[in-house]
Amino acid sequence: MKTLLLLVTLSCAAAAYETTAECPRGTHRVGTENAYDPFHCVKDQTEKDKGFGSVVGPKGFTVRPRCPRGTRPVAGDALQPYRCVRVAAGDVDPELSPLHGDDDAPMATEAEGEADPMTRGCPRGKRKVRTTDPLNPYQCVVQATRVTTTGVDSYVKFSIPREMSFEYPRTFRAQDAWKEEVPTMYLTLDDGSPGKPVTITVTKYEQRQPTYQELDSAIARDIEWQRAQDGGVIPVAGLKARLTYVPGDARTVYLPLSQDSYYSFVYSAPAETYDSYLPTFQHLLKSLRLYRERR
Description:
6 helices, 7-stranded antiparallel β-sheet, alpha+beta, 16 strands, 33% strand, Protein Transport Mog1p, Chain A
């Protein structure tokens, strides 16, 4: 009798197990952590369900998967429905693009995600520049054309009595602060564009100034603080000048006058216009004439 009762119990348990293990057509079994209900039946994922639909939420939900700034989602497989890839150069940042529904949202391709200037360089007509975004440290910008300031009437001559003279573009606004404690001449092109303007500064440093740094210390500061590169010695106004530069951002020329005084000429511009206005800085250095006798 006990043996018969045991067989009936095992038979019922096996039947119950088979009933739980079998799922209707179009669904599949998924395990749970519940000891009393170890399996659930869930609907199979079709090709239509794959992509953004499985991770975005209900139909018509207008928020896409969140990716870090400078990246966007690309559809993956069932185990990883989407992944974040860098935005290709020239594309609109996902954080700034208008919000659309799932049906009309274009999907990024694998090729677009791999168009990375860090690994593949930049296409013809563009150049690589460094950014401040750690997720997208480089970007491709349009190789700007040179500005048309080659004519005689394109430049204005500026003179500092008993010091120097040079030519600068008429389109630049000049601010004369040569009588200040640290004599400086500011030349600025403010065209209304966002970000920093194109600037050229001419400054004189002397040992009597409270913030004076020796020439070698100033060059070392550029290399250490601005991660500038040492451009070596270049000829300026018949003298041997020292050059430091940050590619696509700034260029500084140090012109020694004596053991305890020197001039600095600094050119700074946004990455997209750096090459365009660099010739104006080179023209200023070429037109430089020193009036004061060296000690």
